[in-house]
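Re: folding output
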Amino acid sequence: QVQLVESGGGLVQPGGSLRLSCAASGSILSINAMGWYRQAPGKERELVAAISSGGITNYADSVKGRFTISRDNTKNTVYLQMNSLKPEDTAVYYCNSPKTRIIGSLGLYDYWGQGTQVTVSS
């Protein structure tokens, strides 16, 4: 069993910054790519940023130049630094660890965190 626990969400004014963290724990053998998704009210969940095990990153066009994803493989943790936040960034942010290998299984598993609310408002 693997758990992803997000932290760092909150209320921030437009133009402000937040840093999200997501720590994976449990019976982990290896984690491949990790990503951050978000879902605003009435909208579908969308990919915000992803990072491979080797550090290759990709971003949604809407956050390029403002958000930075990084990871610490020694801690099984992924981060999302969010700068120049806009009201349209308001959403619940979810951490994702797809294709995760766990102890005692040959399969690949997809795990999600519980989500953390980010609200950008004056």
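--- second protein (sequence, then structure) ---
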Amino acid sequence: QLQLVESGGGLVQPGGSLRLSCAASGFTLGFYAIGWFRQAPGKEREGVSCISSSGGSANYADSVKGRFTISRDNAKNTVYLQMNSLKPEDTAVYYCAADLYCSSYPASFDYWGQGTQVTVSS
């Protein structure tokens, strides 16, 4: 059974850091591009970052450029999102998703994790 599991969320003060992980089971993550999305209460799900299957290319939403870094370790079947200089507006449930190619559109992704809560507050 194909499954994605996010972890690493939590409560952090503004300016702090978190590293999210997206672990895959039941399939080889290295065949897929992985996107990170987030959804805040009352808002639509939005793309945060995406990394190609090989890890050779990545893209970021303008709101997180220079603060977030996506990476992957295909040997560990895991993708990471390092989040630095966090702001209250980064508060959301963060999801990882898998598909053959990167896209900023959630509807393009077939496989999703259950999400992990990130709360940035003092």
